[in-house]
Amino acid sequence: MQDSPGWLPRLAPHGGPRFLQIADALQAAVMDGSLKPGDRLPPQRHLAAQLDVDLTTITRAYDEARRRNLLEGRGARGTYVAASKVELNPVLDLSMNTPPPPDGVDFDDLLKQGLSQVLMRADNELLMTYHLAGGSDSDRKAGAHWLEPMFGRLDTRQVLVCPGAQAALAALILALTEPGDVILAEPMSYPGLRAAAAQFGRHLIAVEADRHGMLPEMLEQACRRHKPVLVYLNPTLQNPTTITMPKRRREELAGVARRCQVRIIEDDPYWLLADAPPPPIATFAPQQAYYISTLSKCLTPGLRVAFVLIRDPHERERFLAALRSFALMAAPLTAALATQWILDGSAGRLMEGVRNEARLRHRMARDILAGRYSGDGDGLHVWIELPAYWHSSQLARAADSEGIAVTPAEAFATGGGSVNAIRISLGSIRDRGRLQAGLQRLSHLLARRPEAFTAAVV
């Protein structure tokens, strides 16, 4: 190869980890043809000298490029650009609401450092045994710190640690309701609520909403008519509609809950990703509301850690008893890692990287989807109302036939009429280029009318 390969990147001081900048440059060169299968790359020491970085950076860059199937080693002969691998029916997944890879953060390094600190400071035997439900004192302290932006200083005894938000939601339903009880929700709501209500024999009834969320007057009517025990709300960057309730609406709903003596489950996974969100509903009705905040949407789902704020000690005990009936505890190792990250500041850096990457992807979606994009540029998903010639389930099937997974409105419906829309998630495709390709393919599909489906006969 040439002494100064044309694909060599100019490393930016604030462009993220250097090894990722080099791996990205390699990938771009392969995609644009500057590097072709079979091309030999410079020896690592040679490249390190050219870029004025240490040898470890180049080793990590090459390892990352191998992980992306860009390079292959041939022993003493060196490292070469790999032949393209043929993907059969590659699916561009726009259906799963997971955080994108954080911008400017080396997640692998963060994970290794965090686990190293946990193993160095903790008793390894304690990390591999049973723990009482609700979390250790350190875990609850971390939970109170995590919730501080929403509520200020909290009594750590009021914060419980759970193995994910779905487990917390299920335990609250079990602790607070009986079979046959009514739970109220918005017409479009988190599918996990519907699954839990059906599994436990609770009745889910939809309450009318507008562009600011559930209507207070309709909630009051539903409370008088159905005598519900719980109201489920997801007030910030709502899943799936992306609506963020304004402060006044939150205050009004809290007032209805107090007057009607109905409790609120406030499931708020996206609050920390939003730009200046209003205070949680639980600040306006502290005795009526149970607040859930998961790390799955702001950091990574693999931690399986969520925090629940319950102020009444007797209700905390009821909640823990319900939780123990199906999930004894959060996994001690991942709970300890979450605690380490929160208390040493790593969680804040990781979340900032997720937030920055999510906003960049929202800008991409807004540009590609043009007038069909709806949202505030925050969070992990976009709600797309469809043209009249497409039905949401029909569009989802057509997208699937073109290798794109999206979620139709029916997956979120709790009753009270249907909405012709789909939700697309922006974080589950790790590579921005593949995300861009998926959004462009979806945009073209939305722009054309559906074709008659003809089944193949063989």
TrEMBL record:
GO molecular function, one term: transaminase activity
UniProt cross-references to SMART domains, sorted A to Z: HTH_GNTR
Keyword annotations from UniProtKB, A to Z: Aminotransferase, DNA-binding, Pyridoxal phosphate, Transcription, Transcription regulation, Transferase
SUPFAM superfamilies linked to this entry: PLP-dependent transferases, Winged helix' DNA-binding domain
Pfam families: Aminotran_1_2, GntR
Domain HTH gntR-type: 16-84
Gene3D superfamilies documented for this protein: Type I PLP-dependent aspartate aminotransferase-like (Major domain), Winged helix-like DNA-binding domain superfamily/Winged helix DNA-binding domain
CDD domains: AAT_like, WHTH_GntR
Lineage: superkingdom: Bacteria
Stretches of the chain forming a coiled coil according to its record: none
Family: In the C-terminal section; belongs to the class-I pyridoxal-phosphate-dependent aminotransferase family.
Protein name (record): Aminotransferase class I/II-fold pyridoxal phosphate-dependent enzyme
